[in-house]
Amino acid sequence: MFGTGDQIELVVPCAPLRTNPSDAAEMCSEALAGETAMILEIGAKDWIRIELMADNYQGWTDLKQWRIMNQSLAEKETLKPFLIQTPTSPWVRRDGSVIQLPAGAVLHLDEASQWSFSGIEVEPLFSIKKMFEAHSDPFDAATAFIGAPYRWGGRCVWGIDCSGLVQLAFMLCGKRLRRDASQQAEEGERVKWSERKRGDLAFFKNEAGLIVHVGILKSPSHIVHAAGEVRMDRLEESGIWNGEQMTHTMAHICRI
Known about the structure:
The protein is mainly beta. Helix content is about 10%, strand content about 45%.
């Protein structure tokens, strides 16, 4: 039985977090395999409201995709954690079935060299050499997702939004950012347009002046971002340009 305050871990490759306890509700973020959370509220029909441990983001999720942790967080931290770096990778479960795990999924390796996520034992289908090779450049990490479809609230190669792409790219480089573009805009230091460089974050505003979009600079003149899909576009002081059309209005540049 699940209860308020329980610590839980995700047992599927990814799971949506929603604004309300319904499959029809807006997806506001996404949990990835092996991530942990705390239950804040028990709802009807298998819905629970949780807070992710990684970024303190809250939302409603289907409890059937989670399990109660059989170890305390302190005990779990004694296992060596690994963060998958490639957009997706195949793993074989005990029953012989293959499961695809996304970048950002958390696996653990115990003293007996057994891989697992959320207590589920798995073995890599292919070589793990590239799978856990950490990135040092957030832009490089983000470009691995070029062509991935845009999905509001998404955080993986099967669908990702602008701030999810930025959060994931920095996470693969060992840096934790908050979830939403408006929150990320409060991190780091603002830099002048003339001082912008690769790896800086560019933020964009709507007509009301609110931050609604973010991307990572490849160079002073190009940016990778998620809009329709993860793509590269031209960056000017006025904003993002796709061909002859300006798609996003510049707000400011930040350096993390």
